[in-house]
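Dear support,

Our group has been running a series of protein-ligand predictions, and this particular one with nicotinamide-adenine-dinucleotide is the one our PI (initials K.S.) wants archived with full inputs and outputs. We had some confusion internally about which version of the output was final, so please treat the block below as the authoritative record. The input we submitted was:
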Amino acid sequence: MSRTATLERTDFRVRDEIDLPREGGGIVEGRATRREAYPIFVTGSLDATVDRLSELAGEAQLAVITEEVVYRLHGRALVVALRESGFATEVHVLPAGERSKSLERALELWDWLAHGSISRRDLVVSLGGGVINDLGGWVASGYMRGLPYVNLPTTLLAQVDGAIGGKVAVNHAVAKNLIGAFYQPTGVISNVAFLETLDERQLRSGLAESIKKAVIASPAYWDFIEQNAEAILARDLPALKRLVHCAGAIKTRLVQRDPYEEDLRRPLNFGHTVGHPLETITGYGPLFHGEAVAFGMAVESRIAAARGLLSQTDLDRIIGLLRRVGLPTSARDLPVPAPGTRLVQAMEKVRLIRAGSLRYVLPVTFGETVIADNVSDQELLEALARSGVEPLRG
Ligand SMILES: NC(=O)c1ccc[n+]([C@@H]2O[C@H](COP(=O)([O-])OP(=O)(O)OC[C@H]3O[C@@H](n4cnc5c(N)ncnc54)[C@H](O)[C@@H]3O)[C@@H](O)[C@H]2O)c1
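Confirmed final output from the archive:
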């Protein structure tokens, strides 16, 4: 018997006596508030993950969205465990990879939901890396004007960053994440045991987003990562749990200040002014997001040091830790060429879109940044040269 059948029915009487506005009176203000708080659980086993999901799901049916790699490694076992726990569970498996973050796949998922038995109170479960979390959240946001959803991130990048904050989207041919919304999850459950099967390069790439948070917002987190880098890379479960737990706490504190990104002066963009255009020119794929951000952090830290904002000691510590965990800090370390001319052209394009200024997040020390939009071309070119980017042509 499905869990939905156990819901009790009771009479529910509603009585209202709403006052009318003054005749010819003021403008009526439309208002809506939404509860936008959610727990971020960190677990270390499938059983504990199912327990947490049961707490969040209550009597709901579950619509699990996942992709083939994750389904084979973890999804099948999760679905079996959920069904054994009494949950009516439907599952839809997509191809792995960024190409699935598309409107076509969103339509496919809406078709699947429409032909199934999922209703307004049921729960979407997005099991996968950032691709599935972004796509599943977007599909949930649009179906029946918004189904609740839970993120079960399976990559380190998604556990320390993407699954938190409610930014959901699919890509468009013109730009990444162009079609999307802010739509908060009902909960996030990060099972660090999922990371045991993750490719080592993916693990390192995810760590870049943790290092970013440490530099911009938390000397204590920085110390933790510095002291535990090897344990993290060796996938020591307690170290991973702490890493993910702290990242959740830091990210929510940072996004809480400006959940809908009305102000673009955000320290969370550290590494992205250079990293994002680098991803664009290398075609999203050969270079992982965290690798591009790591390289961007190295260049932007060098700009900060050249300005006298960041001490040489702190610059060495930032570059040193990125290197120690195998992240690129120089063009030589990148898995693809980074042609300086094309990189600067791509940054110029962003400058034009942003009404003439490029905004940089420059670290001052651990936990302190300056948001600057007056970094000159000369400063950028010098930092790129110090980062091994070939001299510009033309
Ligand atoms: N919403 C946000 O705030 C936010 C933030 C950062 C990134 N993102 C998005 O996240 C996406 C990138 O996320 P990602 O790096 O997790 O990519 P991904 O989801 O494509 O996962 C990377 C690879 O790892 C594999 N994988 C996933 N979990 C695994 C596991 N446990 N074991 C073995 N293999 C596994 C996947 O099959 C895939 O090949 C991008 O689309 C980016 O735009 C969103």
